[in-house]
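thread: overnight batch results

M.L. [08:02]
morning all. the overnight job finished for the chain we discussed friday. pasting input first so we're all looking at the same thing
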Amino acid sequence: MRIIQDFIPVGRKNRPMRKNGLNYITIHNTGNSNRGAGAKAHANYVKSDTAANLPVSWHYTVDDKEIYQHLPDNETAYHAGDGNGKGNTQSIGIEICENSDCDLLVATDNAAWLAAQLCDLHNIPTENIAQHYDWSRKDCPHQMRRNKPYSWKTFIEKIKSKLQKYKGTPEEITVDNAIAAGLVTDREHWLGVLNGTITAKPEYIKILIDRAVAQKQ
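M.L. [08:03]
and the structure it wrote out:
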């Protein structure tokens, strides 16, 4: 899947620039069935004065074709409705599009793919994937809460299945693989990462490779 970074500008009221604890992932449905209300349209919305003045924001919007990222994972957002609670301050918010010209099944599958990527990247257990409802009792993600296109249990099972695929052998997580994929150029730096002399997560290289391969498919 293609992830397009289109961040809310620094200084906007809906980009608080506070540190995200990165302990949870929160799943939403957009609640917008209007034709054309896909990921790009929502990327435009979160940069608008309307969204800033509410304020409302989240990290990713997913449709049946692409994913837009609106904030860095390590920043908080206003999406869970719990004020300074764990939903807003410790979770990554993912909105799943439900516009009339979007295939909800494909969009939800794409959200499962993204959630698995984020779980792997940030060491978030699947038990910490929450519904918006869990934080503020809002009926969201309202489609999945009605088993559309499938149940919450199935959604989590799909994420777990994708996570199993990402658990490669140590030989697969290599600097040479990352260089071959065109993702990194500083070989000495990333060798230091893998050898533990430079602080970073070795798993990150594997995530980048997976994303590059997915984008080429």
